[in-house]
Design a protein that fits this description.
Number of strands: 11
Length: 152
Amino acid sequence: MDDKIPGTCRCGAVTFEVEGRPLITMACHCHECQHMTGSAFSLSSLYLSDRFRVTSGTPVARRVGQMATHHFCPDCASWLFTRPDGMDELVNVRATLLADAAGFRPFMETWTADKLPWATTPAVHSYPGFPPMEAYPALLAEFAGGTTAPGS
């Protein structure tokens, strides 16, 4: 089975692929994600950088907020992926841009303090902000043992 999953921006000018299962899937309800998606939350899948590659086009990088650099299609401005500050080994890919996006159900949701009252997700874990750093090993292990992403 080919475990590469293709993704594309809205106009097709930038294409990319991820390989294998993500480390974790999530929904973020922060105001920044609401503004950048024009929706109630963003959906993303966290990958090791060596399991992600741009296959065509050249995304533009923009600093938006204080903790990450976001990458966009230069033509249609689709928000493609994010690189968290100080964590070059990780890339956070917008899950809805991947083929079979329905398979990337969010395992956790963050920034529920900013959540719109009517927005719901099937996330197993919820946090008012980001989870504390010490919670990540257990979250990643629990996600790795589950069946909440393609390839499970």
